[in-house]
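Private note to self, pasted from the team thread so I don't lose it. Backbone tokens:
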């Protein structure tokens, strides 16, 4: 008896702290690191891929031999059984049994694909974006993936750049708000919750400054715009607890983002105290050679690691070189330990040590729950933007008996999914024609003609389209972009639709029938020629699997559109960049600083979007015309729905500081609120201005200043002055 209890006590004492579920995470990390060899540590800092790689831009192939102690894998599969097999290997066969972290690009949904980020932001509904991210996290987690490379919170101002589709638009505050919503949706209350996945903020930082809209090119990001425009969304999401960050492909005025000690270590880790880890973008470490700051693979590894990139995505450069660099005393072991502890921290927080395997449930239980479909549909509905509606062409009157449904997008499914939708399936998508038939099939005859393709110059389908148009009461012309015209490495020199689509519109116009232009695209478009042809324009973006019904509902009037743009539509490509919050020009006179050959104003500014009802804004009131720095100011406006149907109205609050030490943007979005207003109803909107948060400016080192003097708070077309006094 005595012998048995002694043996029991000895073996109980031997359970390592890192395996003790009850021990604090920091003690578990410390204990585990103390047991790891240098090789084991370095393996944790590498990410390989496994499964079929469908991303044409990422050259890595199928990796058959996975080192059992690898830190992370990009999992191009959806099968949790296979993932569990790989995980079992790591847990049971590696010396210390460290679980692998499985990551993947779940950008706007997994199987239930919801609208692209640029569209999501047009909903101005962060709660809905949070719910969609929550739904995505559940599907992702049940497929064996613990970590998504999302949200992308790059502020974007050049619609030629394909990656604008992945961003929440041209405004820094909007990217912060929606980024936080996505992080909260993915990560839930705790990373260790059953359906939580880790978020990854990307691309750190300044990638959106893409020169000429060209991907992978250099970016010239001034210290001022870094702090004023590009860093704030990242700071907000770090404060919201985002587990990881991805370093960008771009360089920041000569120092590539992946070798940038200032942004990665001084700002992210020291100032903001981020304690998760940074993963490089795919091959971004190797690319330091092409960017001209490293002469060899070893050198790239040294630069990226010492700058603060903890995990090497797909390059194996850390695997090949970190040990050598440690032995050469170039990389201190304490830096390796810090990097490994960051990776382990995320794994512990996700609960991977205690629950390393994915529960196996049927595909039916895993994907496309009723709730996820509803959220996807509602998000699609709220992100669609009514851009034009002359003579109340919309909603389509019940007297319409013949509808001509024309265009390459009308029966298309694949392209409605948008870029970065690997696990989306065409079969799950409700097309435009399906939505229209469901909505109008009983009351009208629908004649469909494709008319032309997305591009090329085949006009042979025009005659069918014209014939369908001639016998119709109204034409629904569905044009747009293919899904691979945006996303990574998908820049375009012109943001106009290809000539063939515009030409068909011109031909259809000749029939004299009213034209409703339905657009599905991944970027703002040049509509200078199409806008005059269309009586109404509805922007549906790339809505994902559930676009058909919301679109048809808006056309019929069952749904009152409420989306407003998250990115400005320039009139022509030549106006790029045009965004709402540029700094004031030196000569404010109408004839100065304009183009000689085209108008200077864009077609639609960020924030633009029509409704079927009308709103009347009361005069804005402010709680005081003078406040001290530490006092709050309340601005209020009452909005009346003066139309006949209920609507969702988003109120955007801006501030401006006309005289400051630095020249400030003409206006800056600081708050927004979306509320329902019943027909005839009045609703108050309120913006509580906290001077340090809302009125201060940052200098080029990130230091905040609040100056006394005159400011304006702006809403709709109103501008009210107030003062900060000493
Ligand atoms: C490259 C892209 O830039 C990045 O956004 C993505 O997450 C990685 N590849 C992984 O696929």
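Design output:
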């Amino acid at each position: 008896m005595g012998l048995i209890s002694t043996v029991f006590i000895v073996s109980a004492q031997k359970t390592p702290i890192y395996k003790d579920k009850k021990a604090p995470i920091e003690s578990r990390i410390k204990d585990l690191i103390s047991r790891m060899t240098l090789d084991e540590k370095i393996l944790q800092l590498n990410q390989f891929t496994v499964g079929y790689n469908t991303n044409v831009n990422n050259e890595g192939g199928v990796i058959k031999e996975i080192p059992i102690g690898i830190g992370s894998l990009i999992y191009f599969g959806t099968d949790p059984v296979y993932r569990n097999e790989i995980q079992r290997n790591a847990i049971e066969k590696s010396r210390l049994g460290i679980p692998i972290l499985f990551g993947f690009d779940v950008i706007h949904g997994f199987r239930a694909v919801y609208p692209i980020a640029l569209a999501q932001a047009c909903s101005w509904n962060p709660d809905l974006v949070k719910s969609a991210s929550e739904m995505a996290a559940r599907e992702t987690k049940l497929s064996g993936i613990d970590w998504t490379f999302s949200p992308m919170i790059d502020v974007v101002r050049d619609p030629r750049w394909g990656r604008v589709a992945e961003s929440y638009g041209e405004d820094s505050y909007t990217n912060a708000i929606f980024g936080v919503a996505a992080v909260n949706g993915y990560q839930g209350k705790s990373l260790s919750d059953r359906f939580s996945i880790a978020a990854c903020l990307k691309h750190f930082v300044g990638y959106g400054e893409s020169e000429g809209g060209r991907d992978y090119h250099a970016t010239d990001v001034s210290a001022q715009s870094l702090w004023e425009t590009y860093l704030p969304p990242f700071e907000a999401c770090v404060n919201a607890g985002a587990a990881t960050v991805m370093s960008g492909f771009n360089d920041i005025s000569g120092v590539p983002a992946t070798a940038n000690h200032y942004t990665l270590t001084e700002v992210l880790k020291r100032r903001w105290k981020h304690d998760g880890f940074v993963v490089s973008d795919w091959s971004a470490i190797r690319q330091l050679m092409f960017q001209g700051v490293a002469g060899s693979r070893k050198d790239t590894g040294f630069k990226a690691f010492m700058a603060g990139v903890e995990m090497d995505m797909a390059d194996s450069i850390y695997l090949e070189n970190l040990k050598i660099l440690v032995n050469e005393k170039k990389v201190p072991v304490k830096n390796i330990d810090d990097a490994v502890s960051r990776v382990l921290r995320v794994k512990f927080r996700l609960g991977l040590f205690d629950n390393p395997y994915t529960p196996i449930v049927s595909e039916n239980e895993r994907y496309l729950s009723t709730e996820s479909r509803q959220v996807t549909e509602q998000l699609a509905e709220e992100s669609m933007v009514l851009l034009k509606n002359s003579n109340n062409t919309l909603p389509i009157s019940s007297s319409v008996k013949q509808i001509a449904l024309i265009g390459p997008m009308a029966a298309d499914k694949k392209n409605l999914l948008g870029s970065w939708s690997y696990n989306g399936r065409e079969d799950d998508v409700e097309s435009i024609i399906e939505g229209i038939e469901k909505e109008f099939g009983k009351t009208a005859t629908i004649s469909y003609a494709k008319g032309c393709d997305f591009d090329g110059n085949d006009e042979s389908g025009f005659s069918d389209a014209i014939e369908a148009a001639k016998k119709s009461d109204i034409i629904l012309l569905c044009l747009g972009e293919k899904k691979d015209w945006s996303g990574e490495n998908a820049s375009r020199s012109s943001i106009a639709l290809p000539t063939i689509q515009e030409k068909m519109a011109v031909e259809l116009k000749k029939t004299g029938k009213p034209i409703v232009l339905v657009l599905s695209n991944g970027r703002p478009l040049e509509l200078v020629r199409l806008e005059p042809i269309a009586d109404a324009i509805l922007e549906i973006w790339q809505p994902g699997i559930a676009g058909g019904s919301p679109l048809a509902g808006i056309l019929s009037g069952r749904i009152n559109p409420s989306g407003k743009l998250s990115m400005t539509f320039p009139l022509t490509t030549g106006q790029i960049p045009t965004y709402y919050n540029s700094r004031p020009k030196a000569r404010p006179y109408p004839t100065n600083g304009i183009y000689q050959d085209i108008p200077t104003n864009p077609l639609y500014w960020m924030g633009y979007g029509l409704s079927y009802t009308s709103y009347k804004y009361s005069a804005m009131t402010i709680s005081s015309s003078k406040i001290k720095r530490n006092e709050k100011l309340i601005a209020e406006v009452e909005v009346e729905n003066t139309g006949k149907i209920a609507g969702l109205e988003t109120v955007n609050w801006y501030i401006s500081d006309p005289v400051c030490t630095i020249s400030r943007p003409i206006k800056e979005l600081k708050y927004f609120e979306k509320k329902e207003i019943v027909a005839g109803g009045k609703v108050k909107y309120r913006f509580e201005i906290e001077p340090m948060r809302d009125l201060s400016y940052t200098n080029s080192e990130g230091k905040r200043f609040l100056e006394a003097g005159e400011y304006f708070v702006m809403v709709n077309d109103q501008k009210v002055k107030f003062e900060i006094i000493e």
